[in-house]
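Homework help thread (please don't just give me the answer)

Our assignment gives two proteins as sequence + structure token strings and asks us to describe the second one. The first is just a warm-up. Here they are:
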Amino acid sequence: MHLSESCSLSPRGNIQILQINNSFAQAEIALLGAHILSFKPKHDGRERLWLSEAAIFDGKHAIRGGIPICWPWFGDHPQKAQGQNVPAHGFVRTQTWQVVSCVENSAGTQLVLQPTTSEGAGFAGQTTLSLTVDIGATLSIKLTTTNIGQHSCSLSLALHSYFSVSAISHCRLEGLSSDYLDKTRAMQTYACPSPYVFTQETDRVHLCQPQQVTICDNRGNIDIAHAGHDSIVVWNPWSEKSTSMKDMADDGYQTMLCVETALTQGYQLQAQASHTLQQIIY
């Protein structure tokens, strides 16, 4: 693995962590799951991502916080209801990824990573998968799937980003206006709240394609741009679920909000075609 001058590699628990420090920003990426853990632009020094203080770095479990990659399915696999042992959110987030390239350019540092394999139980597609991360004044993440087979394959996927907020009860979302499916209420459809604030467990799939959503927070706004998506997922576990998670502090829900760039509606990737899901964080 050849790393550019802005990058270094060090262990945390049983996981290797890439540390990037260039003229524009500092960032961290775990090779387990190509999981972005931190992004701190230098123009304001403010951390954009939330990482659980109880996150597990044993190399076996997915890391709580940052930007997990959900692929080739999002949420529970349909076969779970039939008793099949398939992990939630797919199988690449617990694989060790390889750094394919790492280069400096005028805008910062670009890394390309690929998983050990894009084959696994519960997925019949023949694909390649890569993650391109550009770390500069903004953080750009592109997850590209290429169907190298002779038949189409069905995908659902997400960049499951956890954002750091000063207090969940004091922040709001702007840029969403569509109805949503509420996973806490049997996937019934509800109108988008206005203002969009948080007072309870939130697990919503907004079936819309906004170009940008903004988290308005007392510490400063976070702008999140999206491309290649059919949905925006908004999640906060609130107190009861936060208490039940071994990799999350009891009060962890108070300082985080997930705004996820996602394909949730069963995207059909045609043979020999590619799809890129992108999120840009300002």
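The one we have to describe:
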Amino acid sequence: MDFFTKRCLLVFGAILSFGSTLQAATPEKPNIIVIMADDLGYGDLSCYRKGATFTPACNSIAKNGMLFTDAHSNSAVCTPTRYSLLTGRYNWRSYLQNWVLSERMPLLIEEGTDTLPAAMQRAGYETGMVGKWHLGFGRDMDAYQRGEFAIGPNAIGFDDFFGVPFSHNSTPEMEVFMHNDTIVGLPEGHTLWDPIGLTQARRSLEATAGDLSRAAVHFISQNKEKPFFLYYATTNVHFPVTPHPMFVLGQDRATFEGGYRGFVKEFDWAVGQVLNELETHNLLENTIVIVTSDNGGVAKFGGSSEPWRGEKAQIYEGGHRVPFLIQWPAVIEPKTTCDHPVLLSDLAETFTQLVGQEIADLPESDSMDMMPLFRGEHEGFDRGPIIHHSQQGIFAIRDGDWKYIDSHWQGSGRHEIGLKDRDAIIVAKPDGGYEDFSFRPVIPARKDGEAAAQLYNLKDDPKETMNLIARNPQKAKELKSLLESIKAGE
């Protein structure tokens, strides 16, 4: 048996054991699937932008359900948004105050923090996660490097996890699959830091989407007789752009456009596989399927945040306004659109309320029940203020049509501490938790005559081209005060 065949069998075996805790029961509550893409821009799907890569599976969700035009990730980068989705909390309430988690850092969800998957478990749901984790392991620095994986997805409420520990662009020692707290294919007696261990365990980047898709489909099949919650976090379309060759036939894979379009097609194919599996088991009617992204697109790799200003990492709309599609035939009318502002952290309150649970100590400002919108009860719905957060930790607040940015800068750029830097040390507090950590962003000085902050009216100026702070100083003052009170937990 050659190495490639052996490697495929190891991965397939891990997938078959993933999600296999089947318990027969009649599902009285809806199944819930959240598919979160990585770096998929608002303008990357053809249901959002004419000229985008044709995405028939995502288009079918828009056709059979609801398309949101004003949905936002909690951060303009990935780790913080993932924290917010799973906890319902703004990401800056964690110890990570800017950028993303380094591969050395402990679990970002601190001890005692209640979570969405834990609440779903309490409601009798089978909870599974497939795909990109990137929220850390253990309770101190370098737990992953020591092979201590138990404090991770399973510790915060997932019954089963099959996926990748960090990002698609990780170092070779992190380019692996995990099943719960085990590295798939790692020979006994070896580590990822020796040549034999790494060779045996390292995943194929071009095969990753297919392997994750099989795991997601298998989870649905194994749990079709009881309510389930599946968080499916794809590695598409984060760089490196590595679509399987079958998705770039007839295109130039050497170009960003050809490769990236194939990567988007591969993501859409994975969405289609989920829909097909639900249809096979007659689960479509009472299953909530959501497709969204962790932040905006990246132009240099081919991504689009059109028509908004900015892109991933930035505080402008293109950094955090994301695609958000939902179908739930039992409740949501087909071919509907929602223009209300919402946050991905709102899913926590929405789902827990739906199943008769709550997340302990969840601040009221951080998560709001979206069910009225799903039922078409848009009249009178008011999300209230929304806070945005950039790669460098710059804040903005949105209230109605107004958006205040608490800086002159767009919010992305260089940090003094690098992700691999040995100075990136998380310090534990004596009474539990961790001291706030910053990668020390480098913010450029203001230019002559440049205002210290920014104020935009998104109704009149959706592309944020005209800073109105000089004309509306009182509105800026009000929004800054509101921002500070929410940050303080008031």
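TA reply:
I won't write it for you, but here's a hint about the kind of observation we're looking for: The longest strand covers residues 31-37.
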